[in-house]
Amino acid sequence: MPILTRCYICLPLDLALDCKVMKNIKLKMATKEQKKKFVYARKAIVISGETLVEKDAVGIVVNSNPPKSEIFFVRAWINLFLDSAEFKSFDVSKTGDQFPKKICNICHRLMKTDNFDKNQNGINNRSVRRPSCHDCRKELDGVKMSNETRQKWNKTKPINIPYECPICCKRTIAGITSKVVLDHNHKNGQARGWVCDSCNTGIGRFKDNQELIKRAIKHIS
Hints:
Elements lengths: L1 H9 L2 H25 E4 L3 E3 L2 E4 L4 E8 L2 E6 L4 E6 L3 E3 L11 E3 L6 E3 L5 E4 L5 E3 L4 H8 L5 H8 L7 E3 L6 E3 L6 E5 L6 E6 H9 L4 H11 L1
Antiparallel strand pairs: 1-4, 1-7, 2-3, 4-5, 5-6, 8-9, 10-11, 12-13, 14-15
Pfam families: Endonuclease_7 (PF02945), His_Me_b4a2 (PF18275)
GO molecular function: endonuclease activity
Protein name: Endonuclease
């Protein structure tokens, strides 16, 4: 804006307008280049019998020198040189719940939004979908508890009584000032015990992975 103002004051009107036009052209060119930055693989990339990149995997153009371009693929975390026919550019700003396609936050594939389960309703009753696709969500959820196991543990659920979470030691009134949930092992479906919902969510965020938790401990140490 300061540049345009200076143009109008210091330059003849026709030159000032030229400056404005040139700036708009540059903005359009920058936007166009930005849209080209994100691409997805048209097919799986297989090298020496190993699938390095899945079909529809999202990548970012690192360097373009037609007919080859260097693409960094997010999920695989590798750079590959591909022919232009092996990938297609897309506008990443037009992906998500309100658009026909969305990027999975785990496999980082661009796919139809219908491949993401509905989670809840957001503002203006707009449907909000999960960030992970069906396949990744299924793998993430792992083995569910059996109804028999859940029914057995439900008999011991703390309700309307003083409760201290065995993980964070938060003291509350179960069901009144905190939500108590049954945590379970996602690998074998076995229950591990009652914890507050915050700790249960935290464990889930770390994917029940002890190595990730150790890294977190090291990070905050």
